[in-house]
Amino acid sequence: MIMANITTMNGFLLMGFSDIRELQILHGLLFLAVYLLTLAGNLIIVIVTTVDQHLQAPMYYFLKHLSFLDLSFISVTVPQSINNSLMDIGYISQGQCILQVFFFTSLGWSEFSILTVMSYDRYAAICFPLHYEVIMNPNKCKWAVIVVWLSGSICGILYITTTFSITFCKDKIIHQFFCDVSQLLKLSCSNDYLGVIGVAIFISVMAFMCFTSIVFSYIHIFSTVLRIPSAEGRSKAFSTCLPHLFVVSFYLSTGAFAFLKPTSDSPTAFDLMISIFYTVIPPSLNPIIYSLRSEAMKKAFRKLLLGEQITRKQTFLPCC
């Protein structure tokens, strides 16, 4: 009945992963477990980097915002997918779809932007240690974060404005577990999707500029680190930038593959798995990667778990 009326309905039908009820329940429960663990891990990072006196440097300030972006990003798509799987429904209203597209694109861009800022922070810390506090002073850090969030909002507005100006004349069936822009474009019967293509090209150019900045930063970082005479010094320097480099590489590789891969009229399980790799895996891995590589983070976690009192240091970034 839903399939018959989906063209005339106001919303869309998300096909998800399977039509088999048992697999739907399994998918819902697995997503629920990953979602709760991701929320817990990122919330812990937000809490400890806010209250611990040893975690008030710019690196942890940006990490706090990355974690907040992660828990927000995964909350855009996964709860809806969990509900659809467990309740055996696939319908999503147009209003919900618009919100998903806005927050998915805005938070996705904001995450890439904050990763770019974090690479510059590591570049300044390792290549210009004597001038680091001047380069990354509290005011500049705050403005960097403001630009990250504003640029993400602009990206989201551009996408929803162009995407939902399209006339959807085909069956409103989305072969994904969320409102994917590339799938929405396939529902158009005319060339009114060219605005979305223009936005995608503009965002791609901006993303390439950010990528170039990240590459530039790490070329200088590695050349500087390799000139450090002591093995201990090199190890300490690498330990602060390798987690970030891994996150950037994983995020960019999966996102670029999904963006460049042509969409299919009959998406396979492989296509759905790729979407998981850039929507679900990065937010869930980030807390593990950053906490395992940072002794300061592990020490703060232990304090939090043991219920020890954590006092906040009123020195650097006091109101952030």
From TrEMBL:
PROSITE patterns: G_PROTEIN_RECEP_F1_1, G_PROTEIN_RECEP_F1_2. The chain crosses the membrane at residues 25-48, 98-120, 141-160, 193-219, 240-260, 272-292. Its main location: membrane. Keywords: Cell membrane, G-protein coupled receptor, Membrane, Olfaction, Receptor, Sensory transduction, Transducer, Transmembrane, Transmembrane helix. Residues 41-290 form the G-protein coupled receptors family 1 profile domain. CDD domains: 7tmA_OR14-like. InterPro entries: GPCR_Rhodpsn (IPR000276), GPCR_Rhodpsn_7TM (IPR017452), Olfact_rcpt (IPR000725), Olfactory_GPCR (IPR050516). It is found in: Cell membrane. Odorant receptor. This is Olfactory receptor. The gene is LOC102841921.
